[in-house]
Amino acid sequence: MKTFTPSLSKFVLLLVFGLISFTVNAQEVTWLSWDEAAVLAANDKKPKKIFVDVYTDWCGWCKKMDKDTFQNATVAKYMTDNFYMVKMDGEGKEPIEFKGKTYKYVAAGKRGYHELAAALLQGRLSYPTVVFLDEKLNMLSPVPGYQKPKPFLNIAKYFGDDIYKEKDWKTYSGQVK
Predict the structure, then answer these.
(1) What is the pLDDT of residues 13-52, one digit of tens each?
(2) Cα 16 from Cα 129, distance rounded (Å)
């Protein structure tokens, strides 16, 4: 009885193919700082919109959205292709310069908050909340709450593909027939 033993070259070929497949499926989001995103938006020949993920270290749903949604290969590719991605700690202590104003951390009780997070979330400090800005850093919309990959991608395409310029959300999402 013969036993099958693949040759070394076949093994290496299979290993390389497996690694390539893993790399293609493991698309990663590159998170930028505010300063990096603002510089890119101002200097690119074809600037992208800016997406801001406002989170806190203690937020379990934020961590779940990082793992389930932002690491989804389809979501990661679409977001990377269409947005500058910024991750912002809603309780971060470092000052942030935005549109000519310096926003700072505000101590409040047991936990404080960052003034820019409060401004972007329109005073509703709930986490996670994602925020979409246009190419000129103007607010399009904050979107509060955990989002699974498919519904999130639907929202991201609404802003990323400029559908918001032609249709209101209720019509686009099928809530109005």
Answers:
(1) 333 444 444 444 456 788 988 888 877 877 777 789 999 9
(2) 39
